[in-house]
Design goal:
Blueprint (H helix, E strand, L loop, with lengths): L1 H5 L9 E5 L2 H12 L6 E3 L14 H7 L2 H4 L2 H33 E3 L1 H4 L5 H9 L12 H5 L4 H6 L13 H16 L7 H9 L7 H22 E4 L2 H9 L12 H16 L6 H5 L9 H50 L3 E5 H6 L1 H7 L3 E4 L7 H6 L7 E4 L13 H7 L5 H7 L9 E2 L4 H4 L11 E2 L16 E5 L5 E3 L4 E3 L1 H16 L7 E5 L2 H9 L3 H4 L3 E4 L8 E7 L15 H8 L2 E9 L1 H4 L3 H12 L3 E2 L2 E4 L7 E4 L72 E5 L6 E5 L38 E5 L5 E5 H8 L142 H4 L14 E3 L6 E3 H9 L5 H5 L20 H19 L2 H17 L1 H6 L1 H10 L7 H20 L8 H15 L8 H27 L5 H15 L6 H17 L9 H9 L9 E3 L5 E3 L9 E3 L6 E5 L2 E2 L4 E2 L1 H4 L8 H15 L1
Parallel strand pairs: 1-5, 1-6, 2-5, 6-7, 8-9, 10-16, 10-17, 13-14, 13-15, 15-16
Antiparallel strand pairs: 3-4, 11-12, 18-19, 20-21, 22-23, 24-25, 26-27, 26-31, 28-29, 29-30
Helix pairs in contact: 5-12, 5-16, 16-18, 34-37, 36-37, 37-38, 37-39, 38-39, 39-40, 40-41
GO molecular function: helicase activity; zinc ion binding
Main location: cytoplasm
Keywords: Cytoplasm, Immunity, Metal-binding, Zinc, Zinc-finger
């Protein structure tokens, strides 16, 4: 190269192109050039490990040079635009990828799933759980999925945290242990990884940028997890957050075993992929009614929609990134072209030459040098050439490994494994061979000469190598006869004996003081490579290289341990007989080579026979390897088996070390050549140092720091006077007393803390407290105090009510509002639907349409709708035909041909005649081969001569044709059976018969009846539209609802336009809302002090109505009607009491109290309660008339009779309803003050005070005595008298 560069003027200004097969070889080549050329080198590709060549990489030259400034202006602008677009797209991709990864690492918070949840799911989730039981994250999803405070407070394990044997937790621990053991093994690169590492190009991203990118991604992931996840799988992050300082809000805390159980449950569920279908999810109204397994399925349905949206964005930005990357590649090629044209030497791998082929054609190098040319495919070599090439130099060794082709047949049949180098040598083209080797010591080189190379001389540098420490010979082959094992279905082999022996030898050499990087373990088979990997823990062997021979060409190391693997009874040596591979295997070591194999078998190969002869001449082969102790050279140990290395446990010999350590103790180890100064030896004997004036000695091991004295001594604490066992080094003033605190709290209980701790503020002693609902419940003492202060506490008492369906109510007292609104029944319905499926909904009186996939199908197609939707009839021609009959109708119509009873002429695969009927699918059973099975009596005709059989397509059962014909034609004896609409079922397994050619007419008739019922259930579109129009008109007439509850009124109108409209449900909902609006209007007649309580009960009903519903069950309708009736009586009662005014007498007060107790109490408002309330109301009507005067009718008449004026219209009331009278003409002539409330009454100039009004309840007047209406009536009466 130096000569070529000195004569570069002869071949123009074009650079010299250097091409190598691997990155390692390219680095070595260019480093050699750098010794005499320190400028003008360009190294293409970023996978260089050389610090010297870092400045010459194409990436560095792009960054520090002014090449980009030399580009045309439009290209520089395009470069900036493309880079910006790529960075933006990359950020979006990274964000989306982090979000996608987050969804797999924990449970997403519900606020991020809101857009992917149906409205009814969100509403029921939000309103279905009390806030006071919330977990620290404030996540309803955690509570809903059974990962919150309530779930684990109710189902905590015992105090010892014991778990049953064989639980998922233990299995998870075992998996983690296995993962940890796998991670602790030495990483061994496979063939594919090695090829990628050596040949693929880097994506021009330097280490600093990668580090910054990884840090940003890690920070982004942590930030996203805090933002997105309600619970994460990583415990370390949470524990770290808990350890951080700062005030903590009070919340539920979990014990360690509870956290572990939650993590493991969540991990198991997140691994699953099965979620609800959209149809199944749409059927769910209240998510809290689902069982735990179904909740996780619904959660996965939401997450799948969330992930699908992210993937859609990823694809969008990926297209943008790919498009801009292609544009950037084109711009970089132009930039690289400028750099390469200015260089003197350009180095790249064959992969880089293929990638930069277009640029190389532009650069047009006239001189091309190819290193490792004998290992490069001819096509790859040709790729490096351009039309301007004048001088091609190939460097290589065709006696070592050939190129490897991916397709073996092409390599063998078309000589693809022959390189251009080898082909030119073999055709007689002149070549030059180098005779000096600079790698191997002479003993190792002697194995190759003259067996492989005829003339090979040693360079003086290889004569100066030192001997291998701890071994009596620098070169040795160990013989054995242990057999190999076949793996990977015979495609590879392993030899456990050889692997164990070399691992122990490697450990021994490491003990001699050799660095792991100085040792390489080579093997001839991939199977042995992975066998070695399992025996090499990374803690001990980190840095030791382990490779197969084929992937180590061009490499070398000080010490090579070689496993030959092959040892079998058939004496098959495989590719160990190929001279190229043998050459590579024996020529990789510089100072020491140790091999192990079945040499007796290998000696049958001529080449190996010669090698072994050379070894035996110098005593370098045998059954055992002789080790030599460095500290005691006279002691030698022979090792033939892996267990023999136990004789030299520390790499020396079996004698004790006996060296005195710095601490004064004797070294406890056996003889060891490493660490002769004993600086790294840790003394494990007990430390004898005195730590304190008391004379206590250190209890730790000698090598550990002593620290403060921790021996416990009895001390009396000055603050409390208790005597405690205190560590010797801890001052008594700083010690926290561990005696139980005996102070009595304000509630009367003893403090649960220790004496040295601050007393408990919220007592956790369990007490029995009476809840507002009347139930007794065990709660913490502090919670009982909260109950007395009016704080709501959910009652967990099981609801004792029996629902109208006959089942026990599944709710608790607080969930059922004290028995007023019961939870829906959760028992599965299991009634048989018209489609023959069982209803999967909870117990209901009216089953909704079936949501399973429709199973109706014919020979042409199958229905894609749900089972409850009407199927579109098949319009293809009927396929039921044989040589005797043929149906002429459509597939969905009843057939117009009879059944054919002629035996089927076909033959089965077994060669016997078919047992079926002509023109029908042949039964899968043969009457000869399966005679005993077919002739088993069911209908009674099976064993008769000439019996024929029919196989049902839906279930596969086979029946005798005559008996099955009778069964299918039978309509039943009972009237109910003859008129029932249902599908015929298989006589054996009860599977509905939906398709069968022989009984097609019967099946199609039944299916058409079922379809008619489906349409009846769903309703005709015109009928539904008419009902919706009628309901819309009714809504417009509900003036009170529109005025009092405009939002709910608008919601009802909007729901009338929904496609899945249930008019009956909306009618009920409109009726209930209208009732609530009237009651709310009636509250205006109630005393202001009574309104908040009444409004609260109205709000409870409104909140219950706002829960997601698609229909009302009978139980729900009954509960609502009874509760609204109760509220109507209550509002009427409160209004009557307000109208009466004043203080009622004792009897009236007793009636009011009794009625209010019935109306404001808990529990259901029963018919008996209603009867009692009606009786009390009738009694109150007599005592408190509707006039609201607080007088009886007799008293009112007496008052009216005491005044002289007999005309009406003289009685008025102040703004607060107090009655007064105006005498004379009835017109107000002066103002005064009401004696009861001091409001202004009366008026001036016959004009009444605007805030006052007529009191018609006193005398039945319709207008004041002095008014325009009164004058008009008086004038009319006078005219009548004149006439």
């Amino acid at each position: 190269m130096e000569a070529l560069l000195h004569n570069q003027a002869l071949h123009g200004n074009s650079p010299i192109l250097v091409v190598c097969y691997t990155n390692h070889a390219l680095d070595q080549f260019l480093e050699g050039i750098y010794t005499f050329l320190d400028t003008g080198i360009v190294r293409v590709g970023g996978r260089s490990n050389s610090e010297i060549l870092k400045q010459f990489t194409l990436r560095e030259l792009r960054n520090k040079g002014d090449t980009r400034r030399q580009l045309p202006g439009h290209l520089r602008q395009a470069y900036a635009n493309v880079s910006g677009e790529m960075r933006e797209a990359q950020l979006h991709l990274e964000d989306a990828g982090a979000q996608l990864e987050c969804s797999l690492r924990g449970v997403l918070h519900e606020r991020h799933l809101r857009g992917y949840m149906a409205d009814q799911h969100w509403e029921s989730l939000v309103h279905g759980y009390p806030e006071e039981w919330m977990n620290p994250k404030g996540s309803l999803v955690l509570e809903w999925l059974g990962l919150g405070a309530s779930s684990f407070s109710q189902s905590a394990p015992d105090r010892n945290g014991a778990q049953p044997a064989g639980t998922p937790e233990e299995e998870e621990e075992e998996e983690e242990e296995e993962d940890g053991a796998e991670a602790s093994l030495l990483k061994v690169a496979g063939e594919a990884e090695l090829i990628e590492e050596e040949r693929l190009l880097d994506q021009d991203e330097d280490g600093r940028a990668q580090l910054q990118k990884r840090r940003r991604q890690r920070w982004q992931r942590v930030t996203l997890e805090d933002h997105l996840l309600a619970m994460t799988l990583e415990e370390e992050k949470e524990e770290k957050k808990e350890e951080e300082g700062g005030p903590k809000e009070p919340h539920w805390e979990f014990q360690r075993h509870q956290k572990k159980a939650m993590k493991q449950r969540m991990k198991a569920e997140l691994r699953k992929r099965h979620g609800m279908t959209t149809a199944e999810a749409d059927l769910v109204e209240d998510v809290w009614l689902l069982e735990l397994g179904s909740r996780w399925q619904l959660y996965r349905h939401w997450v799948q929609k969330y992930q699908a949206e992210i993937r859609r964005r990823v694809l969008q930005y990926e297209e943008i990134y790919q498009r801009e990357a292609e544009r950037l590649a084109e711009l970089r090629l132009q930039e690289d072209l400028l750099i390469l044209r200015q260089a003197r030497v350009v180095g790249m791998t064959t992969t880089g030459a293929a990638r930069y082929r277009q640029v190389l054609q532009e650069v047009a190098p006239r001189v091309v040098v190819v290193e490792e040319a004998a290992e490069v495919l001819e096509a790859h070599t040709v790729t490096t050439l351009s039309g301007a090439c004048q001088h091609l130099i190939l460097i290589g060794d065709h006696q070592q490994l050939r190129p490897s082709a991916n397709v073996y047949d092409l390599a063998r049949n078309f000589n693809l494994e022959v390189s251009l180098f080898e082909r030119l040598v073999k055709v007689g083209l002149p070549f030059v061979r180098l005779n000096f080797q600079h790698r191997m010591r002479p003993e190792i080189a002697r194995l190759l000469t003259p067996h492989i190379y005829q003339d090979l001389e040693n360079h003086p540098s290889v004569l100066q190598y030192e001997n291998i420490k701890g071994v009596s010979s620098n070169l040795f082959f160990v013989e054995h006869s242990c057999l190999e094992q076949e793996i990977q279905e015979g495609r590879s082999h392993q030899n456990l004996h050889e692997a164990q022996f070399l691992v122990e030898l490697c450990r021994y050499l490491l003990c001699q003081g050799y660095r792991p990087s100085q040792i390489t373990i080579l093997t001839t088979y991939t199977g042995q490579l992975y066998c070695l990997r399992k025996l090499l823990p990374a803690q001990t062997f980190q840095g030791v290289k382990v490779h197969v021979v084929d992937k180590y060409q061009g490499e070398e190391n000080d010490i090579v341990l070689l496993s030959l693997v092959r040892s079998n009874m058939e004496e098959r040596v495989g590719f160990l007989q190929i001279p190229n591979r043998v050459c590579v295997a024996l020529s990789r070591a510089r100072k020491g080579l140790y091999a192990i194999g079945n040499l007796a078998m290998l000696s049958k190969v001529p080449l190996w026979s010669k090698v072994l002869h050379t070894l035996r001449e110098r005593g370098q082969v045998g059954r055992a390897l002789r080790l030599s102790c460095q500290n005691h050279p006279e002691t030698q140990t022979e090792v033939a088996q892996p267990q023999d290395f136990q004789k030299v446990p520390e790499g020396g010999c079996s004698r004790p070390c006996e060296a005195r350590l710095g601490c004064g103790h004797v070294c406890p180890r056996a003889c060891h050549p490493y660490d002769p100064a004993h600086k790294e030896i840790q003394c494990l004997k007990p430390c004898q140092k005195v730590l304190c004036p008391e004379g206590h000695r250190c209890p730790r091991s000698c090598y550990k720091p002593c620290g403060d004295c921790q021996v416990k001594v009895p001390r009396t604490l000055p603050r409390c006077g208790h005597q405690q066992e205190v560590p010797c080094s801890v001052p008594v003033e700083d010690f926290c007393c561990l005696e139980p605190c005996m102070k009595v709290l304000l509630c009367g209980h003893i403090c649960s803390q220790t004496c040295g701790q601050e007393c408990t503020r919220r007592c956790q002693e369990t007490v029995q407290a009476a809840l507002p609902c009347g139930h007794l419940q065990e709660v913490p003492c502090c919670t009982a105090t909260d109950i007395q202060d009016g704080r709501p506490v959910p009652c967990k008492t099981k609801c004792p009510s029996v629902l109208e369906c006959g089942h026990q109510c599944p709710g608790q007292c607080h969930a059922c509002f004290g028995g007023r609104f019961h939870q829906p029944c959760r028992r599965p319905c299991q009634r048989l639907l018209i489609c023959s499926h069982k209803c999967q909904q909870p117990c209901t009186s009216d089953c909704p349409p079936c949501q399973r996939p429709c199973q109706n199908r014919c020979i042409h197609s199958h229905c894609l709708k749900t089972c409850g939707e009407p199927c579109a009839p098949c319009m293809e021609p009927c396929e039921w035909r044989c040589q005797h009959y043929q149906c002429s109708r459509l597939c969905s119509e009843a057939c117009d041909r009879p059944r054919c009873d002629v035996p089927c002429p076909e033959r089965l695969s077994c060669g016997h005649p078919c047992a079926g009927m002509c023109g029908e699918p042949c039964p899968q059973k043969c009457l000869v081969c399966h005679r005993e099975e077919l002739t088993q009596i069911f209908f009674g005709f099976e064993d008769e001569p000439g019996a024929r059989f029919v196989q049902l397509e839906d279930c596969g059962h086979i029946f005798e044709a005559q008996g099955l014909d009778c069964y299918m034609d039978d309509q039943g004896e009972e009237e109910e059976d003859r008129t029932a609409i249902k599908l015929k079922v298989c006589p054996r397994c009860q599977t509905p018969i939906r398709r069968n050619l022989r009984y097609g007419t019967l099946v199609k008739r039944s299916l058409s009846e079922v379809e008619a019922v489906k349409e009846k259930i769903r309703g005709q579109p015109a009928e539904i539209a008419a009902q919706a129009q009628r309901l819309r008109a009714e809504l417009k007439g509900k003036v009170t609802l529109r005025a009092r509850q405009p939002e709910r009124y608008q919601q009802l109108l909007e729901r009338l336009g929904e496609p899945s409209l249930s008019v009956q449900f909306l009618e009920h909902l409109a009726g209930f809302y209208g009732w609530l609006a009237k009651l709310e209007e009636g509250l205006q007649r109630v005393a202001p002090a009574e309104r908040p309580g009444a409004r609260l009960r109205l709000a409870e009903v409104a909140g219950w109505l706002e829960r997601p519903h698609s229909s009302f069950t009978r139980q729900e309708l009954s509960d609502l009607q009874s509760e609204l009736q109760r509220l109507a009586y209550l509002v009427d009662l409160l209004a009557r009491a307000q109208a009466a005014g004043g203080s009622p007498d004792a009897s009236v007060a007793e009636l009011l109290g009794t009625a209010r107790q019935l109306l404001e109490g808990g529990g259901r408002f029963t018919p008996e309660d209603e009867r009692l309330v009606k009786a009390k109301m009738e009694a109150l009507k007599a005592a408190l008339p509707a006039s609201g005067l607080g007088l009886s009718e007799e008293e009112r008449k007496q008052i009216l009779g005491s005044f002289r004026e007999n005309t009406r219209g003289h009685w008025f009331k102040c703004p607060n309803g107090h009655i007064y009278v105006i005498g004379g003409c009835g017109g107000a002539m002066q103002r005064s003050r009401c004696p009861d409330c001091q409001e202004t009454i009366g008026g001036e100039n016959h004009a009444l005070e605007p805030s006052n009004q007529l009191a018609p309840e006193m005398d039945g007047a319709t207008h004041p005595a002095w008014s325009d209406a009164a004058n008009d009536r008086l004038l009319a009466a006078q005219l009548q008298e004149l006439l």
